[in-house]
């Protein structure tokens, strides 16, 4: 005679559904329970509904992620960070048409590159195979909006680490689709903390630096260069082989590897905070340093990090020139961003599992939640 034992799932998980266990045979020691009775069981194995299977931290390690693009140094750094974290790297990645069909090996994993023409069909098939897929995007600025539109159309949550594109359109696309996403111009954990502090200062003390001028020099080694200049009888800096007076007025310089095509998203975010603090500055005044010779001679970037660095220094000067403030952050390599991107993916997975009402997050949200490994 068949029997059914009903156990409330809230003993084992979060939902109130009932899980039924059935058998066609009646054990000899079977005890009849009335419908009003329930049996509390101690079970060594865990029963979870499909939409809760990542709530166990151990299952976070099996989270499938797709990294676009695997041909770029940033994408490869994210893949290596994901492997180190124990995540499942999906063996597919979006790239440019010229790389379509290629197989790239990263961290011992073979990853096939798919061009623009088959992105939608590829992603649809991947979603069927990996229902909990999360995408990490480090492509190029002009692909931001098209990629986001595809992710949203397919219903795939994503981490957007690529800067540039139409940011207003990006946010609107995600909001309309109700897809979960982490969007941030900066993935470096410690730099995010600095940005969070800047946001707090701008919110609590608006206008505190009214009248000040802002210069953002690309982390020029001011100590050694000014010292050398003073020994020479004057304060002069070198730029492109030409001497010039030390920067006056509003000027922003930022140095990144030559392959970075757009203005630093971090610089934009910091400047926005300074504007709220009362500093007058136009983003169009930002000057990009992408020439390796200038980066070595003027900025002081180590030669081994020319292909991967981010040097910034923000210099504020009072109207009468008697007071100055400096904020500096220099990054060599890509590991800080790659590790942050993986943290963001894990954070996003938890938000999806908890069915959070909020859909769009940034790295400050990740930092506030303590989701940094």
UniProtKB/TrEMBL annotation:
GO BP annotation list: diaminopimelate biosynthetic process; lysine biosynthetic process via diaminopimelate
Keywords carried by this UniProt record: Amino-acid biosynthesis, Diaminopimelate biosynthesis, Lysine biosynthesis, NAD, NADP, Oxidoreductase
GO cellular component terms listed in the entry, alphabetical order: chloroplast stroma
Cross-referenced Gene3D superfamilies: NAD(P)-binding Rossmann-like Domain
Family: Belongs to the DapB family.
Protein EC: 1.17.1.8
Name this protein carries in UniProt: 4-hydroxy-tetrahydrodipicolinate reductase
Top-tier EC class: oxidoreductase
Species, as recorded: Cynara cardunculus var. scolymus (Globe artichoke)
Keyword NADP (UniProt): yes
Catalyzed reactions per annotation: (S)-2,3,4,5-tetrahydrodipicolinate + NADP(+) + H2O = (2S,4S)-4-hydroxy-2,3,4,5-tetrahydrodipicolinate + NADPH + H(+); (S)-2,3,4,5-tetrahydrodipicolinate + NAD(+) + H2O = (2S,4S)-4-hydroxy-2,3,4,5-tetrahydrodipicolinate + NADH + H(+)
GO molecular function: 4-hydroxy-tetrahydrodipicolinate reductase
